[in-house]
């Protein structure tokens, strides 16, 4: 008894037709028929009733079918197990991350490398829009990105950090006498922000649009610490993660109200799951570490 005989038998049973079954297994129809005949001779019973317009299972065929399916499933499981082990020995994982963050992604990658030294890891920096595009086209297996205002239903999201989005000004700025500012209070003021495509900028743009105005962006920089330095020089109002706005002694933080804005960092991967065993193992480790 050969596995291909069981495969052909199961396929004919499911298709109820030799021609369609042959097309599905990419074998000429006479070859499929011959192999099933050999299987029947070995078992001493006809498995298929060929007398009608459609092929039907005989009583013996109906009894054999579950065992044939189980045998094929067992072989497929053994093959996947070997592929998983091989992938964790000689695999590859492509990871993306936003330029500036306070998540211990290096620690995660170091631990994973210690356990799977044969897996090649590549790390790419970019803004959140670029990282989402990489996840969608398959060039990235996972990414640490900033959550924007848009929903990403095709991706799985594990929120790692969530905090308020805060305005910050220099100590000598006219707003430094206040503890908060409504969003409309930033209208026409020079703002210092991350570029389009970043999570915080997405929240700012959407909130301003809902309030009926466009933010006046005077300066852009790719990392929050640079925004803080520009604001400390009196060049405008920086839009920052709350932790950065309140950690700089040169800045005065202002809570944004009506509405309050919140952002965060998340690990994301395709909703259908990564393709490689190594990527699946890395994501599982990340879920344990960050979740």
Automatic annotation (TrEMBL):
GO terms for molecular function: DNA binding; DNA-binding transcription factor activity. Signal peptide: none annotated. Coiled coil: none annotated. It holds the Pfam family HTH_1. One of its GO terms (cellular component) is protein-DNA complex. It comes from the Bacteria. This is LysR family transcriptional regulator. It comes from Amycolatopsis acidicola. The lineage of its organism: Bacteria, Bacillati, Actinomycetota, Actinomycetes, Pseudonocardiales.
């Amino acid at each position: 008894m050969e596995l291909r005989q069981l495969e052909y038998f199961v396929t004919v049973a499911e298709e109820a037709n030799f021609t369609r079954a042959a097309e599905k297994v990419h074998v000429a129809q006479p070859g499929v028929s011959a192999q099933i005949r050999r299987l029947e001779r070995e078992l001493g019973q006809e498995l298929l009733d060929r007398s009608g317009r459609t092929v039907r299972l005989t009583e013996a065929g109906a009894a054999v079918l579950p065992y044939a399916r189980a045998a094929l499933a067992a072989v497929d499981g053994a093959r996947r197990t070997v592929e998983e082990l091989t992938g964790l020995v000689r695999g590859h994982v492509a990871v993306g991350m936003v330029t500036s963050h306070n998540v211990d992604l290096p620690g995660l990658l170091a631990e994973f490398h210690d356990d799977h030294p044969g897996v090649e890891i590549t790390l790419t920096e970019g803004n959140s829009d670029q990282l989402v595009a990489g996840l969608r086209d398959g060039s990235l297996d996972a990414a640490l990105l900033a959550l924007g205002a848009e929903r990403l239903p095709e991706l799985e999201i594990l929120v790692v950090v969530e905090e308020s989005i805060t305005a910050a000004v220099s100590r000598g700025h006219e707003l430094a006498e206040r503890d908060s500012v409504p969003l409309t209070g930033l209208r026409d003021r020079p703002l210092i922000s991350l570029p389009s495509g970043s999570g915080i900028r997405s929240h700012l743009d959407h909130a301003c649009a809902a309030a009926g105005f466009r933010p006046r962006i005077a300066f852009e920089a790719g990392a929050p610490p640079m925004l803080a330095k520009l604001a400390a020089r009196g060049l405008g109002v920086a839009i920052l993660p709350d932790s950065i706005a309140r950690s700089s002694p040169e800045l005065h933080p202002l809570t944004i109200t009506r509405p309050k804005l919140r952002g965060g960092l998340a690990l994301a991967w395709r909703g259908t799951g990564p393709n490689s065993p190594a990527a699946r193992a890395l994501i599982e480790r990340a879920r344990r570490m960050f979740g």
